[in-house]
Amino acid sequence: MKPLLPALCLALIPLAAPAQDAALVVRDGYARAANPRSGAAFMVIENRGTEACTLSSVASDAAERVELHTHRDEGGVMRMVKADPIRIPAGEWHALARGGDHVMLMGLKQPLADGDQLALTLDFGPCGRVETRLPVDNGRMPAPAAGH
Fold first, then answer.
1. Is pTM, for the whole model, over 0.70?
2. Is residue 45 within 8 Å of residue 124, measured between CB atoms?
């Protein structure tokens, strides 16, 4: 029976390898409350892989519903709407930022308080899932736009 344990451990090494060589990297992320029942999460997702990956959904135990949202101009009025899946080409990045694409948290189970950590699971379909924890920073302001 003892020879089987090392063989089993060696067999599991390929399953651990993708976590070490992550093609999808989340950076500069944070979450903030919109009110006690809803909030949003923002981040930059880098695709360091050789294939395009598509963010199709996000999940979190912190809220009843978690959706990808964006802002669209509808008749001269900017509205927040549910977003289509977000494609990130190989070697590129995509920002989920205030005023654009972002993660919307609806039906928060408890308010997002400064210093909390928000756990999210980003689902990229065939490219896999990315688990991340974002700090809650209700006072953080968006970075100034380039050229301003």
1. yes
2. no
